């Protein structure tokens, strides 16, 4: 079964460092997303990406965050200068279509980011 | 704004019994979709079942069924014949269509299900 692949599975970084989380979405999917889950809390939407641009972002997704699809297969989330409160599980997801209907978002296994 | 409420932080069920996980929602959009995802201790998010607001019948997927009561704005997940492997966190989520493309899911706070022998 096709899956969304995320790397690294766990990253530990020092506050103020840049972090790049990588994702390989399902190959025929056109819509890409990042969500995050702070430990013990609910999953929160960060950003959606379609046709090589951001289609929507949440208030969490400030100027410290950026996304890119550099080569047609990878989808990356960059945090420019990490803060302690960025510690969370970051999920990449993709979907084949984006309108109404049973458009299932397929999630990756997550990248756990720990900021010290 | 869309809102999802899961009022059961934790549930216990005996193996082979059925269990219902509650989910209520609020939206002003007449067209919406409701999803249930399972998150085992390993952390990944696994899609279980989907219900569209205009679907005439309640969704079913194997041992999972969705008790959709539109007037009550509830979309409860029913797991029949519980198995030990069903022990996990379960999230209810509502879909909002993004104008620029894609879907945004709003998640509830989740219900931790523990299946006991």
Structure overview:
The complex is a heterodimer of chains A (116) and B (117). Chain A is an all-beta fold and 116 residues long. Chain A has no helices and 11 strands. In chain A, the strands form 2 sheets. In chain A, strands 2, 4, 5, 6, 9, 10 and 11 form a 7-stranded mixed beta sheet that branches. Chain A has a 4-stranded antiparallel beta sheet with strand order 1-3-8-7, with no helix packed on it. The termini of chain A are far apart. Chain B is mostly beta strands and 117 residues long. Chain B is globular. In chain B, strand 10 and strand 11 form a beta hairpin. In chain B, strands 2, 5, 6, 10, 11 and 12 form a 6-stranded mixed beta sheet that branches. Chain B contains no helices and 12 strands. Helix content of chain B is 0%, strand content 54%. The model of chain B has no long low-confidence stretch (mean pLDDT 94). The chains are: A mainly beta (116), B mainly beta (117). Chains A and B meet through strand 4, strand 5, strand 6, strand 9 and strand 10 of A and strand 5, strand 6, strand 10 and strand 11 of B.
List the main descriptive attributes of the protein structure presented here.
heterodimer; A: 116 residues; mainly beta; 7-stranded mixed beta sheet; 4-stranded antiparallel beta sheet; 49% strand; globular; B: 117 residues; 6-stranded mixed beta sheet; 12 strands; 54% strand
Roughly how many Å is the radius of gyration of chain B?
Answer: 14 Å
Based on DSSP secondary structure assignment, what is the total number of beta strands of chain A? 11
Task: Profile the largest sheet of chain A.
Answer: 7 strands, mixed
Number of helices of chain B: 0
Strand content of chain B: over 45%
Average residue-wise pLDDT of chain A: 92
Coarse shape of chain B = globular
First-to-last CA distance of chain A: 36 Å
Main beta sheet of chain B: 6 strands, mixed
Topology, number of strands of chain B: 12
Radius of gyration of chain A: 13 Å
What ranges of chain B have pLDDT less than 50 throughout 5 or more consecutive residues?
none
How would you spell out the order of helices and strands of chain A?
A: EEEEEEEEEEE
What kind of oligomer do you see? heterodimer
Shape of chain A: globular
The proportion of residues forming helix of chain A, as a percent range, comes to under 10%
């Amino acid at each position: 079964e096709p899956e969304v692949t995320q790397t690294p599975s766990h990253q530990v970084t020092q506050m103020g460092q840049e972090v790049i989380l990588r994702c390989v979405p399902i190959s025929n999917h056109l819509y890409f997303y990042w969500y995050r889950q702070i430990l013990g809390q609910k999953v929160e939407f960060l950003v959606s990406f379609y046709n090589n641009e951001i289609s929507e972002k949440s208030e969490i997704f400030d100027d410290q965050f950026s996304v890119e699809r550099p080569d047609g297969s990878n989808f990356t989330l960059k945090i420019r200068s990490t803060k302690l409160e960025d510690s969370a599980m970051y999920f990449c997801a993709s979907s084949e279509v984006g309108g109404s209907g049973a458009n299932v978002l397929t999630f990756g296994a997550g990248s756990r980011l720990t900021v010290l | 704004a869309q809102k999802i409420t899961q009022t059961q932080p934790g549930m216990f069920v005996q193996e082979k019994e059925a269990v219902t996980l509650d989910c209520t929602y609020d939206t002003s959009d007449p067209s919406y979709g409701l999803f249930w995802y399972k998150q085992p201790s390993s952390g990944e998010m696994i899609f279980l079942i989907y219900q569209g607001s205009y679907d005439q019948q309640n969704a079913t997927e194997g041992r999972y069924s969705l008790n959709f009561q539109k007037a009550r704005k509830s979309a409860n997940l029913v797991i029949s014949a519980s198995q030990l492997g069903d022990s996990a966190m379960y999230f209810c989520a509502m879909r909002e269509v993004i104008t620029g493309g894609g879907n945004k899911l709003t998640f509830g706070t989740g219900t931790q299900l523990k299946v006991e022998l």
